[in-house]
Amino acid sequence: MQKIYLSWGEYERRFDRLRRYLEEKKLDAALVTSGTSIFYLTGFNHLVTERPAALLVPIGGEPQFLGPLLEVDHLKLKTPLIKEVRTYLDYPGVKHPMELFSDWIKESGLGKAKIGTDNLAGAAGTSGYTGQSLSEKLKDAKLSNIGAVFWEWRLIKSSEELELIRESAKWGNLAHQYLQDFTEPGLWDVEVSQMATLEATRAMKKTLGMSWESTKGGSPCSAGFRGQIGWKSAIPHSIGINCVIKEGDVLVTGAGADIGGYGSELERTMIVGKPTQKQRKLFDIMVKAQDAAIGILKPGVTCADVDKAANRVFHEAGVDVLVRHHAGHGIGLQGHEPPYLDQGNPQKLQPGMVISIEPGIYELGYAGFRHSDTLAITEDGYESITYYPRDLEYLTIT
To answer: HSE (CB half, 13 Å, CA atoms) of 149?
Structure first.
């Protein structure tokens, strides 16, 4: 049976790790305000808005949710791990949420405590939120920033996390195949994307069953072009383009799926019609650079080494002026997270890291060329998690 969520035991182990960390750092509690970090600890994902929300974790007590009333019923549906809840009606309120957070922390016996937090302000600060910093409200407490530790813990994926990422890659693979099958001249890229996304999501739901649902909203399984059509394929983070797909276009794609909050990254360069000599040349250089970056992956190799391996290929081919970004990045709960495979990053790869490898080249006014694959670092090398064909013959739309 496919694994589609983390076990509650996995989340409980994360709380245990946090409490051990607090003990090591001689802290009395943690206050977590990041929506992603709250999800990482509890399995509860919510829409982060102007309304402050936080998770208060005393070293020797039950975790408490501090947040808006509209999230309480949602919270109870999503996690059994938070039993203590303190809520306010809405923001800014007659009494500001930071005033209430301060009161609730004091009522929990932590008014003079040492508290580690990912945000000294006490709130994520989105959607125009304003308010006095929580550290100013808790004058007798000592707040210190521990936000980096969550990024550190997320660097190395557990066996359960890896299972979810592998499952995501299966459905991203299917979505991409639908995308390629539906692509043809005369269609708007959004039409193709929506058809592929719908078909893949239908298949995913039928296969995984009624217990599966998206944790993040939006399309749970999707494939598309993100506007990288024709000449605009040379814009790495393009959004959209006001034209239809036509013969001769270079298309840069993307596909993935949400499995228990975890994702994978699959991107390919496709060409509509017979590739020109120049298209074939740039495509081949890009694939060679990706091969070079993948080929050196193993524990102990630095992030800089990986980026340099790809850049060396581009330099030798005389196209290094077409490079617009580094060779890849970490992936997991978010599409971009550490480690960053950048020539300025000396961080060493470790078993359990999950990364994308996506060196690309982009000639403005002409086209861009990029494949992206998700890989996991193993004890003696790497595991390819995505597996969609990379050769030009397969990726040519005829």
So the answer is: 20
